[in-house]
# Entry
Amino acid sequence: MSLPTEPALRSLPLDFFLARHRVERGGQVAIVDGANGDSVTWSSLADRVASIAGWLARAGIGCGERVACLTPNSKSAVEFYLALARCGAVAVPLNLRLSAQELRFILADSGARALFATAPLVELAEAAAAGVATVGVRILDGAARAGWHPYADLAGEESPAPGRDEQVTGESLHMLLYTSGTTGEPKGCMIRQRCWATYAAHMAGVFGLGPGDVYLASLPLFHVAGFGTAVSTLMLGGTVVTAPQPRPDLLYGLIARHRVSVMFLVPGVSAAFVQDASRTRTDTSSLRLFISGAGLERPDVIEIVERELGARYYGIYGQTESGGKVTYASAAQIRQDPATYGHVLPFFDFRILDDDGRELPPGEVGELCLRGESVMAGYWNRPEATADTLRGGWHHTGDLFVALANGELRMVDRKKYLIKSGGENVYPQEVEVVLLRHPAVADAAVIGVPDPRWGEAVKAFVVLRSGASASRRELADFVGEHIAGYKKPRYVAFVTAIPRNVSGKVLKNELAALATTADQAT
# Structure
């Protein structure tokens, strides 16, 4: 069922909450930089954001101008993103793990007019910007360098705060969030400022996020969920503690020091976090909410979160194109059905459609399609891709789901990952979920590989737990005990790690490039 959106809410710019919180909680801390302990109150944050926006405007960075940002999570980064929203500029967050060549593509594709970087990454930033003629303004946080404006000067006393630009509304673009590019060149998802109001509404309504919460921002701000959860916390009056990297000992220290109540980690990182020795010697009693990925988390992680950390666990599913989280499942739902993705968040309309665009009844597999205020406006300079993804007024996720009679959804898999083996459909994620239940398996991923007899065969990549052992045949038979025999892996490759991007998604193109050999047969 669709829920109407109040036009006044849609028109609100992203930083509308700063003026309110300045009055209601001006002396309280809004952001803490976990790397150095620097903090800023709500009153100071409002002033700094306005001053930085004024500096940008005087530098010629106004409505619609793109500004690339190469920085780890920090107080400065959050301030800067808010300032870009205030002056109507469009942030282009850059993935710190990309090479200079990959970053250069994004700078050129977005037509970035300015580049904001942090000192430890300045050489990478300069290499990326080399030859990109549009980048005329460079801002550096943390050190002085020729050709770069010091970030500290942007919010100085010599930068008087301007009035708000009335052109800036909730309809204004705020971010170009580039997809990971696992199946081709990355595309910039155009995210409007109003997206974050919907994100905050979901965080408040479903997860109870509010003024008393302290969010540990370890999920990168260049990730839709990383920025969305951080800015939602601020919009709702909470405090954000930034973590420059998700190192477990650092995170535990920040939890204890700042009484963190909300965490959001991706599968893989979450397992390392809960198993780290720091857990047993850290006061985590402030934690109340722990979010990770639905359908991808090991059962023991969920149990440790709820039993040892004392937090409520939720698994979520989302996409950059959807503007963040789409579904949520509680620990109780996951225990009852490990394959569940839970319910769709309330401010989305959704359908399960077949290839002809017909809505399917519960129990039938089809593509999840969405409508909602947070859905992207389209892909930057990609009209054909935009028309295909947003055809018929619906965001076509490319993900196959089945709706259950109780309203919950199960994700079957990405459409492009479907394995056709002997005329039967095998969805890799269904096999992965079973493998993760084996006591010897720490992580797993499944792909299809060419097979002369069956067309395609199921191949599993498995990371074994430290000190554990299992044979290829044992793992294949374990799968066959829980799901249909034709879904059993015909090949198993033991690896030290599953390649994933920053959002926790498996880089299956890298796995597909690895050789399949006879000794991997089950």
